[in-house]
Design goal:
Elements lengths: L12 H6 L3 H5 L8 H20 L16 H22 L6 E9 L8 E9 L2 E8 L13 H14 L5 E10 L4 E8 H21 L20 H8 L14 H30 L21 H10 L12 H8 L1 H8 L25 H8 L6
Helix pairs in contact: 3-4, 7-8, 10-11
Length: 380
């Protein structure tokens, strides 16, 4: 069954709010699926089942139909369901009859033309409307703070229940287990509606007509036009003004300017190369380039037969090494892993990473400084 997607969906709101014309531009490109998208769909399907089962609702076990099901996905789904149940119990402290909606379609077309989306979980109670979004992705750590997608869901929730329940505040919760991330943010109903009227509605009008200014930035990552967008190219090609032949001559402010765009530059180049390869495979010719077979390594035609022959020759053909933490946890189960091996694990300090100043992590205390202090300041 095909699922209808809104042009100005909640899930893409962060992009079309930042770059209004990108919504219509993206319609020119075909939808493409990926293993990551399917994994996310499977994770949500399983999480919905676990939550419905925990709440005593009629449901069906989807496990056999999931392509990416594994113990990790199962554990995260169960923990998500337990987390939502905790939020329901909290709601009962101030409301005798809170409602829980799962995978509910929400309409926020009052502010966005034909705007709708599906929220993972909505808890409606007197005083507070709670919106919970289950993020299974491992790549980007998602924050609920002034999150446009969550704001749109909240507006849809208010359209359904404001007046039935006395709602003053909206609580937004991102549950992202693979990043150990539970992000919460509370906004007043009045502030949310003010944002919808001042920002969301006028921007949506522009986006629905393909009007407004193109703007490049981190929101380009999930745009279908990201590989061929001229504004994104201009944004990244600004780095061409720096002389890379003698990096040592760059001033610190020039290096800082490059660092500001480095990740997006790498991402953009990768997107352009991926797009060009796809087009070349479809017959497009790019001047100065040609398609060739890539490098490859030899493989066994029959691994079992190869192993038997090596064993017959008196040698051991197999590598033996201890399973990693994730694989061992899957083998033993979380509780057994902690009982048996909990005392033999540790988490080493992460490798230093240079990030922007607004990153919320504490500033790194240089190992060189620590070493120098421990040695009493001795230097050769």
């Amino acid at each position: 069954m095909s699922v209808k997607h809104a042009l100005l969906s909640a899930s893409s709101a962060h992009r079309w709010i930042a770059c209004p014309p990108s919504a219509l531009l993206s319609k020119k490109f075909d939808d493409s699926s990926s293993s990551f998208a399917q994994e996310g769909t499977d994770a949500h399907t399983l999480a919905q089942y676990k939550l419905e089962k925990l709440l005593g609702l009629p449901t069906r076990d989807p496990t056999e139909s999931l392509s990416f099901y594994d113990e990790e996905m199962n554990d995260h789904a169960e923990n998500y369901a337990a987390f939502v149940l905790e939020q329901v119990e909290k709601a009962k402290e101030t409301c005798v009859d809170p409602q829980v909606l799962i995978e509910q379609k929400l309409d926020f077309s009052r502010y966005v033309p034909e705007g709708f989306g599906h929220v993972d979980c909505l808890i409606i109670a007197d005083g507070t409307l709670t919106v919970i979004d289950y993020k299974y992705g491992l790549g980007i750590k998602v924050s609920s703070e002034r999150n446009p997608q969550m704001f749109c869901y909240a507006l849809g929730g208010l359209a359904l229940f404001d007046g039935i329940y006395d709602i003053d505040n909206v609580r937004l919760v991102i549950y992202q287990p693979r990043r150990e991330n539970i992000s919460e943010y509370t906004v007043s109903k009045s502030e949310l509606i003010q944002w919808a009227e001042d920002v969301l509605s006028p921007t949506a009008e522009l986006a629905s007509k393909g009007e407004g200014e193109y703007k490049a930035g981190e929101h380009c990552q999930f745009c279908k036009a990201k590989a061929t967008c001229r504004k994104r190219a201009e944004y990244n090609l600004e780095l061409a003004k720096y002389d890379f032949e003698v990096p040592a001559t760059l001033a610190h402010d020039e290096i800082a300017a490059i660092l500001t765009k480095a990740d997006e530059l790498v991402s953009w180049v990768s997107d352009v190369k991926e797009y060009a390869l796809k087009e070349a495979l479809n017959g497009t010719k790019f001047e100065g380039f040609k398609l060739v077979a890539g490098r490859s390594n030899r493989k066994y035609t029959d691994e079992a037969a190869a192993a038997d022959l090596v064993i017959a020759a008196g040698k051991d053909p197999f590598e033996k090494k201890l399973l990693g933490i994730t694989a061992m946890t899957a083998l033993l189960g979380k509780k057994a892993f902690e009982d048996i091996l909990g005392g033999l694990t540790y988490k080493p300090p992460g490798k230093p990473v240079l990030v922007t100043a607004d990153d919320k992590r504490p500033e790194f205390n240089s190992a060189y400084e620590d070493f120098d202090e421990n040695q009493g300041g001795n230097k050769s």
